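Subject: Sanity check before I submit

Could someone independently write out the structure tokens for this chain? I want to compare against mine line by line before I put it in a report. The sequence has 310 residues.
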Amino acid sequence: MKTEDFYYDLPGELIAQFPIKDREESKLLILDKKTGNIEDRIFKDIIDYFNPGDCLVLNDTRVIPARLFGSRIGKDEKIEFLLLRRIENDMWEILARPGKKVRPGNRIVFGQGLLVADVLSIGEDGTRKVKFNYNGIFEEILDKLGEMPLPPYITEKLEDGERYQTVYSKHDGSAAAPTAGLHFTKELLKQIEEKGVNIAYLTLHVGLGTFRPVKVENIEEHHMHSEYYEVSHKAAHMINRAKRDGGRVIAVGTTTTRTLETIGSLEGMIIPKKGWTDIFIYPGYKFKIIDGLITNFHLPESTLLMFTRK
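---
Independent answer below. Compare away.
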């Protein structure tokens, strides 16, 4: 299966650069995979497609201001860091641009010395391992110096960082938002619950695995970067109850789906678990857990498009 099979022409002028004022007024496209029927609706109409006894599963990760701009000591330049994941304590895995200026032994300075990174090593996938040095609390410094890591197709600056968070975000750790959930409001979620739908939350911290470009000709040779997930006893119980009682499990986003399919059994049940997943879902995969998917915009030739074009 070729990467080029998942190409489509994407006119840049058709990509919205600013979020709509009311999240739930976004456009909604409904596809019935059995009939091929397509409907144009508004996102808040999604409640019409839920049944009592269904289980809606959301990823409650929260995006950190993971984009940092600095320079090497004594150099007039701009170096960009994207924090991918904390390895331990003050040691992080990051992406750097331009990479040729970020080599082992380099020291990168941010905020006039408020934060300093020593580059330790370079991974096979181009990521860097760095150790940060600072005085104070790292999260407070990151809030001061960092920016929200918007997708590459968004070129306008986001004034309100909360618009790049879901209304149910809870656990810090993502380098990008699980965007499928951005259209839900607290009011809409309440209405869905009142209809008899159970809402379960899990956590997957979005990292390089979600947005790394596919550089191989044959998609089966692409290796996904690992991302950390947690599924609680409460969430597992709600999901298993829906499967057992004939309800549907509807995943919000590819991150939620990847988590459920990682821990799901062939019998269609899951267990509470935490760990790392590098699962890559593309045409031919047989789903074990999810019965429906709410997803968002995907770039041509991306792993997310391969996922949703099954």
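---
OP: Matches mine. For the report I'm noting this point. The chain has a mean pLDDT of 91.
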